[in-house]
Every structure is written in structure tokens, then in C-alpha cells.
Amino acid sequence: MTVYDIIDAKKNRKELGEEQLRFFVRAVAAGDASDAQIAAFCMAVLLNGMTDEECFLLTDAMAKSGSVPARPPVAGVIADKHSTGGVSDSTTLVLVPVLCSLGVKCAKYSGRGLGHTGGTLDKLESFAGLRVDLTPQQFARQIRTVGGAVAGQTEQTVPADRRMYAVRDVTATIDSIPLIASSVMSKKLASFADVILLDVKYGDGAFMQTAEEAERLARLMVKIGRRAGRNVSAAVTNMDAPLGDAVGCNAEAREAVAVLGGKKNALARLSLFLAEKLLAAAFSLTEEEAARRVAEAVSSGAALEKFAQIVAAQGGDARVVYDPSLLPLAPVKTAVRAERDGVLRVAAKKLGEACLLLGGGRQRAEDAVDHSVGILLQKRAGDRVKKGDVLAEVYSRSGAEEALARVRAAFSYPAAYTPPALVYDYISEV
Ligand code: URA
Q: Which of 110, 200, 233, 405 is the most buried (most CB within 10 A)?
């Protein structure tokens, strides 16, 4: 068997078997397959698709391509949640402390922002001193002692995905449902979480443009996870407008703290909805009881206190949790105003791109991020606005004309507009 034969078979629409997929993934992880061969394989999959069986076998081989950390010896279930990425999506910063404060252990592996999407690890690094590069031992110890940890997966985890993702990124092969499903699920299966909730986004600011595509991706990932013996479910949620009212690391970290303190917006609604689903799955509770406990975790201050404990355990400045104004915003504040009367429509992707232009995101994985720049929305999608109303405050280091133009372009003013429902579907069985 050769890598060439496997690419040729996929090119000719043949179904690949377990041995072929294992061989290919081993060759990728060991460096025996060239970037050109990985690109050809990924393009063949993108064009010709994969059966669900092939996709499961590819995912399983990828998950086992590196080291899999040992499960810490804790009683009960360990939970994880994963978002396919969007703009102003700080749900992890809210959901993990809520769940940990209610006794659910959380082992949350997160990623960095790329392109117009933000990353949880960058937002956590807003807390001065906080480390996200925990060793597997530190990660496991924190789950035992504090109840939860949020960190990046190590270089040794799923090396096949690391290589394949880097090649896909520069060969226009990201947007393939089987390749996204195997990439996401290989990383989930290479962790030890028992209960996994996927938040699959669709809309302007997401990978998947339509609810139907997102639903297909969600169902495939749930199927892969269930077949691997994990309790996986998925929410399909809208990402036409930014989820919260803040874009940018410090601004989003401040907002997550505000939501843990009781602020109400779409970020709060979705974070608490996901927390309820995970809590109900972890403890076999009714939806009503899960909702009651989640609301209580916020109103009692227990979730906020747990967040401070997690930040401190990872070396961060926990005072910020009680005084988020300690997180600086960049010095030049510019108001962006409504250009006409109408109902506000907000395009998430353009705001994510504006944040990138301000220096608050990264074009390439190795770029540095300015945590202080960002955008604070003063109006939400669906609000009726008048010409001259302040829609957003933009925080920059200097004038940032290009970014401001992108923020202005994110707003439109139709005569009538109703934003789509936040949660399109919830899939717990396939
Ligand atoms: N996120 C991933 O981890 N992989 C993909 O392919 C797309 C989004």
C-alpha cells in the first residue's frame, strides 16, 4: 500500500477501508506523506465526499495519531463543550465556571482565534499571567482540585490534524464537512471527556453559511462521537450577528464577567442554555431542574467565584474577575453612528474582520494579538435605530480608518428585519 494508491482511490470515488485510512494518517503524522499528497487527499475528499463510515475511521485514526492524556481519577462525569467558531463567542468563559460551581468537572480544550473568529485561549490570556499551556499533569490536577481547566492541547495531541489543518488552510480545503467533522472530533476523542456538547454555528460569521449545512455537520459529529462511545450532542446556533455585545479579547473577557454577574443578552442566553444541557446530561436531571440550578449558580455569585478560582489556579490575576475595568481598552475611542433610520442588521464577519484590522486577531497562527483593541456594540440586531444613534464604540491605538470603514459596512438598515432564532436545533440522537 502507498499514499499514492490511497489518493488515487479517493480520486476515483472508491470507498476507503480502515487499513488504508490508518496507513494514510500514520504517514501524515510521521512526516512520510508530503504536503502535496495531503493537499491532494483533502481536495479529493472535498470534491468526492466520504461515507459516514469512512469519516468515523479517519477520525478514529487521527485521534490515535498522538498521545492521549490519561483521565484524572475523579468521580462522576467529565464534560467538554466545543464551538465551531464565531464572533463575540465567549460562551466557554461563562459555561465552564457555571458548570464547575455546580459540581460538573470540566476538561475544556480550546483554541486560538484565526481570521475573523476569536479564540478562547487569547481571551483567557487577557487575565495577566494566566497560562493556557498546561501540561497534562497540571490540567488533570486542576480538574481534581478546582473542578475545571481550560487549556490548549499539546503539540503531541492529534499531530495528524495539526499537519492536515495547516495544509487545508492554504489549499482551499477547509470547507469540507467530512474534513471539518474529523478534525473537530479527533481532538474531542483525544481528550477524556465523557459528555461533549458541540455548538455548531451557521450564518454570516461562521464556517457554515446555512442552517442545513450546519445541521449535516452536527449530525455527522454526533454520530462519530456516539460510535466512539461518548455522550455527544450538538446545538445548531445562529451566528449572523455577533453573539455578545463586545468584540476583542479584553472587551470579551469583561463581558463574560458581566454575564457571570447577571448581564442578559444573547451570549448569556446561549451560554446558560448550553450549561443547562450539559448539566442535565451529566446528572440526568430534568430540563427544569437543570435550568433552576444554572440560574441559581449565577444569581448566588457561585459561578463568578468559581471563575476567579480557575483564573487564579492558572496563574492569572483573579482581581480582574471582581473589577473588570482593570482590563484596559485601547486609548482612542471612536463612535460609529447610524447612517439612516431603520431596523439594525449586523454582519458578524465584518466586525470580526474589523477587529483583525485593529490588531486584535491573527491572520496566521504565529501572529501576536493586541488584547486591548475592540468594539463595544451599543445597539443590537433587530433594534430600531435613528440616523445619528451611536451603534458602536471602537477602541484603537490610532485612527484605524480601514477598521472603522469595516465596522460601518457591518451595519445595514432595512425597513423590517427579525433576527433568526438563536438556537435552530438541538441534536441528542442520530
Ligand atoms: N475547527 C477545527 O478544529 N477544524 C476544522 O476543520 C474547522 C474548524
A: 200
